[in-house]
Design brief:
This protein has about 1000 residues and is of the alpha+beta class. About 55% of the residues lie in helices and about 20% in strands. Strands 1, 2, 3, 4, 20, 21, 28, 29 and 30 form a 9-stranded antiparallel sheet that branches. Helix 2 crosses helix 11, helix 10 packs parallel to helix 12 and helix 27 packs parallel to helix 29. The two termini are about 40 Å apart. InterPro entries: AcrB_DN_DC_subdom (IPR027463), Acrflvin-R (IPR001036). This is Efflux RND transporter permease subunit. It comes from Fontibacter flavus.
Length: about 1000
């Protein structure tokens, strides 16, 4: 096959050029994202119900929705949480569920349930969780002094949002911090009383004045006209002119008995940029869009906004393209330095300029053609797929060096150029194919991990398979053709010598050490075997992390004030903290209270705040955040807060609200939360005292109104009259809405803003005898501690504690008995169980990978024993990687694990080729020598033949990665653990391939032969 292709160089060259042209065209169409577009199998339903208690939201809203959603296909878990004025339901589906269909199904069921929900409740929001929903950048919109905030809100909603959504690649624009204008009506109670009127007269006048006839039409000859009442109102002045009539027939303008004006509607949340109130726009990209092209368009649009709208200040924060740019930058750096060092190392080892040029052509060719595979598998260019390409680059260089070295060796043996090219490739073809298959056997099974991890590994596995597959084609077809082209002028001359002086010195040193080690073979082999458990034991000294510690200059402070405060008080506290920092930060923003984002799938309440800070240096960040923590502890001892690095897209994808180990119980008798006093007594007898209260047990102070039914009956007052009056006094009572072309302006009855006891004393209801009685005659109130949240799952309402013990499952039997004694159904839940499932799954997948590795190698060597040599070389490389990670103070994390896979791929390659060479030499010398002489000569000569490619591969890879160690910045911080793993593994791995493989082969051959 190789001979056939070599005989047609023009056809081969044109084919590769065509593939590269198509690849370049395809590359321009590939989407560029930070992360793969993963469908997280979750849907969140959010409910906003102003002036409703947690119990009311649970009973009237969340409970019927939960019951209606129980029959959803693929529903794995269902959690709900009701708080003051807000509620959430989180639906988790089996991984692999078609989330587009699930989303439609959930919305349909919500629509069917609408009639059974409270009439004054806005439609619940249904939010689908997706990696593309992570905003790529946040645009700050700050009104300048003297400009109306509501006008800027309208500008943001109606103009800025639409202009940003028109940018190519933008899928959605979300807004937080909006304020809308309303019309308030403040009745003059004294005047109304003097005229014999009530608030009811004012309300009826406004409703009648804003009525619209629904589709009434009249005919005038052959024409038809639709009727419209001319009494509709559009502004406060229109309302003030409306007539109000008393029961005695007195009529006058509404403006004489009430004050009507525009006001800003009361909000449940606000946004701060620095110490100024403003709005924030989050920009989300389309799945097929290129982030590196989208972000410049957003920046350009903001510059235009600054010119067009001088009444507003703009700024951009939390640009998520930094991580992607770091990944692309690292790949470019690897290519540039890899090419330069490959050229230098090949020149040092081989002493000619042609071979490095061939490598220089094959490396980018393989990379470019790999993007064709991306296109056919619908893979985007993202941080995950780029790391897969970086993974394959090491082996790509390895394959090229091995093929070129083997062709050169064949020429040394006296073969003609054409024959050397063909034989050189054919001899190593099966070994190289096996080495690629073994690498894929280790890596590809990880695709079958469940959840988000498996989906992420899919992109990486495809990119690794793509570049390794393409590298084989290049190594078997393009490389020999290029070699033939570059050396054609010397085609008639056998290549007698092409080793540099440096390599001759290395070869001399290798032979000396080989003789010494093989002089004491048993001792040397035993020492190698002892090093395996010792090296692997180093893992217990390494810290385990998700992502490597990256130098971050931004931080997030999440605060729950744990007190029943409103949004204004929340804002004042946040402003106090910002002022105390005295502007020692570069940028800050804060979301105070409930967030208005459509895509926000987390939980927020009036008493929560989320602060973001950007600092100039990490030292400043650490110092100021420590101060911040001290200030919160001293000034607000009840507050619960958490200070952490600002989450990037990876953190947001892998973050989980799930507690580590939660004990849940349900009251089997009442199906409701257990009363506070009884629960406190039961918790004092809980078997495990190291716990924190779950959401369903957290308390907050509240005021409880109780109606005196006997007095209401005595004075002839209906309970619904009293409830309506209380709603007007304490709630947001909407009289009607003004609707103009999609813009809705509510008209609300304004109530007094003062102590509720005074309100009850100074407002009255008329009894059956016509006498007015103060409301406090019929309402008793108490200050009580009530549960802050009501939590529920598929089985109904539950309460819980979160265990903080190192071995939380050790008390399970006692906890179950504690629950049974109190008629509680107890269950256990949390990340603890998920982690155990993942570990068991991972162990199973790795066992499958090792079996695949063994089967492939058995087929390659036609032996059941020789694959064990390859398998035993791997722990030595891993031990070397662990040693370097420990010395450099690095952790075992995602990036260092990827480095281990890179290193093991190269080690497997070297070991397979060396064993394959030994096998061929044993067959060759079996006719010339007898007994142990055949094995000894084959081992010695195979080591000499494979020394150059093994050394060149290791040195090239190490030197190509070395610049990352001395670099700084986000990209270098991410890649450094990977580099340490590869350097440590290859340093030991090279020594292993040179000496352990022949020792292990000698030991197994000695014991397997008769």
């Amino acid at each position: 096959m190789v001979r056939f292709l070599l005989a047609r160089p023009i056809a081969v060259l044109m084919t590769f050029l065509a593939l590269m042209v198509f690849s370049v065209i395809v590359f321009r169409t590939l989407p560029i994202s930070l992360l793969p577009p993963i469908d997280v199998p979750q849907i969140v339903i959010k409910v906003n119900y102003p002036n409703a208690s947690p119990e009311a939201i649970e009973q009237n809203v969340l409970s019927p929705i939960r019951e209606g959603l129980m029959t959803l296909n693929g529903l794995e878990d269902l959690e709900s949480k009701a708080g003051s004025e807000v509620g959430t339901i989180r639906l988790t589906f089996d991984y692999g569920t078609k989330m587009e269909l699930a989303y439609i199904d959930v919305n349909e069921k919500i629509d069917r349930l609408t009639n059974s929900l409270p009439s004054d409740l806005d439609r619940p929001q249904v939010i689908r969780v997706n990696t593309n929903d992570i905003p790529v950048v946040r645009v700050q919109v700050i009104p300048k002094e003297g400009f109306d905030f509501t006008e800027v809100s309208l500008l943001t909603e109606n103009v800025l949002k639409k202009r940003l959504e028109q940018l190519e690649g933008v899928s959605l624009v979300d807004i937080n911090g909006k304020k809308e204008r309303i019309i308030t009506v403040i009745p003059d109670k004294a005047t109304l009383k003097a005229l014999g009127m009530s608030e009811e007269n004012v309300i009826n006048a406004i409703r009648f004045g804003n009525e619209e006839l629904p589709g009434i039409s009249v005919e005038d000859g052959q024409f038809r006209y639709y009727l419209r009442l001319a009494t509709r109102v559009d502004s406060p002045s229109d309302i003030q002119r409306l007539p109000v009539t008393s029961s005695e027939g007195v009529t006058l303008d509404l403006g004489r008995v009430a004050k009507v004006q525009y006001e800003v509607n009361e909000v449940m949340g606000q946004h701060l940029f620095g110490e100024q109130e403003g709005l924030v726009i989050t920009v989300h990209k389309q799945a097929a869009a290129k982030m590196n092209e989208l972000l410049p368009k957003v920046y350009e649009a903001i510059e235009i906004f600054k010119e067009d709208y001088p009444q507003v200040d703009f700024d951009l924060t939390q640009d998520q393209s930094v991580l992607l740019n770091a990944g692309i930058s690292n790949l470019q750096t690897s290519l540039i330095f890899g090419g330069l060092f490959a050229f230098g190392v090949l020149f040092v080892f081989m002493g000619n300029y042609r071979t490095p040029i061939i490598i220089g052509i094959s490396l980018p060719s393989s990379l470019v053609i790999s993007f064709l595979v991306f296109y056919f598998f619908d893979i985007s260019i993202n941080v995950i797929s780029l790391s897969g390409l970086a993974l394959g680059l090491g082996m790509l260089i390895d394959n090229s060096i091995i093929v070129l070295d083997n062709i050169t060796r064949k020429r040394k043996e006296g073969l003609a150029l054409f024959d050397a090219c063909a034989e050189g490739v054919n001899e190593v073809m099966s070994a190289l194919i096996s080495s690629v298959l073994t690498t894929l056997a280790v890596f590809v099974p990880l695709v079958f991990l469940s959840g988000v991890s498996g989906a992420l590994f899919f992109d990486q596995a495809v990119s690794v398979a793509a570049i390794l597959g393409v590298s084989l084609l290049v190594a078997f077809i393009l490389l020999p053709m290029l070699y033939h082209f570059f050396f054609r002028k010397k085609a008639q001359e056998p290549l007698m010598e092409e080793d540099s002086r440096f390599f001759k010195l290395v070869l001399k040193g290798y032979k000396k050490l080989y003789v010494k080690i093989f002089a004491k073979r048993k001792l040397s082999f035993a020492i190698f075997l002892v090093f395996i458990p010792l090296g692997l034991g180093l893992v217990y000294l390494l810290e385990v992390q998700g992502l490597p510690p990256i130098e971050k200059f931004d931080a997030v402070v999440r605060i729950d004030w744990n007190e029943p405060i409103g949004v204004e008080q929340n804002k004042e506290r946040v402003m106090g903290l910002l002022e105390a920092l005295e502007g020692r930060y570069e940028k800050s923003e804060a979301d105070v209270g409930v967030r208005q984002f459509l895509l926000f799938d987390g939980e927020s309440s009036l008493q929560e705040a989320n602060l973001y800070f950007l600092f100039e240096t990490q030292e400043e960040k650490n110092t100021e955040m420590e101060r911040m923590g001290g200030m919160i502890r001293n000034a607000y001892p009840n507050a619960l807060f958490e200070i952490s690095d600002a989450p990037n897209a990876f953190d947001q994808l892998f973050s989980s609200n799930m507690p580590f180990y939660e004990v849940r119980w349900k009251d089997l008798t009442t199906k409701r939360p257990v009363d506070e006093e009884k629960m406190d007594a039961w918790l004092s007898e809980f078997p495990q005292q190291e716990y924190s209260r779950g959401p369903g047990l957290q308390k907050e102070a509240s005021v409880v109104f109780r109606l005196d039914a006997s007095r209401l009956a005595l004075y002839g007052i209906q309970a619904n009259e009293l409830q309506e009056q209380v709603k007007r006094l304490f709630g947001a009572y909407t009289i009607t809405d003004i609707k103009r072309f999609g813009e809705i302006t509510p008209i609300k009855l304004s109530s007094e803003r003062k102590d509720f006891e005074n309100i009850l004393r100074n407002n009255y209801l008329k009894g059956k005898d016509g006498v007015e009685y103060a409301l406090d005659n019929f309402i008793r109130f108490d200050y009580e501690n009530h549960y802050k949240f009501v939590t529920a799952d598929k089985g109904g309402v539950y309460q819980s504690v979160i265990l903080e013990d190192e071995d939380p499952s050790s008390h399970n039997a006692e906890i179950i008995k504690w629950g049974v004694d109190r008629n509680l159904g107890v269950s256990f839940f949390g990340q603890y169980f998920k982690d155990r499932e993942t570990i068991q799954e991972l162990i199973g997948i790795l066992l499958v990978a090792v079996l695949l590795l063994y089967f492939i190698l058995s087929a390659q060597f036609e032996s059941f024993v020789q694959p064990l040599i390859v398998i035993f070389t791997l722990p030595l490389g891993v031990a070397g990687a662990f040693l370097v990670l420990l010395i450099t103070g690095s952790s075992l994390n995602v990036m260092s694990a990827i480095g281990l896979v890179v290193m093991l791929g190269i080690m497997v390659n070297d070991a397979i080729l060396k064993i394959d060479t030994i096998n061929r030499l044993r067959v060759k010398y079996s006719s010339e020598l007898t007994g142990r002489g055949v094995l000894d000569k084959a081992l010695f000569e195979a080591g000499e033949i494979r020394l150059k490619p093994i050394m060149m591969t290791s040195v090239t890879t190490i030197l190509a990665l070395l610049p990352v160690v001395f670099s700084s910045g986000l990209g270098a911080d991410l890649q450094r653990p990977l580099v340490f793993s590869v350097i440590g593994g290859l340093t030991i791995g090279t020594f292993t391939a040179l000496y352990f493989v022949p020792l292990a082969y000698w030991f197994l051959a000695r014991h397997s032969e008769p």
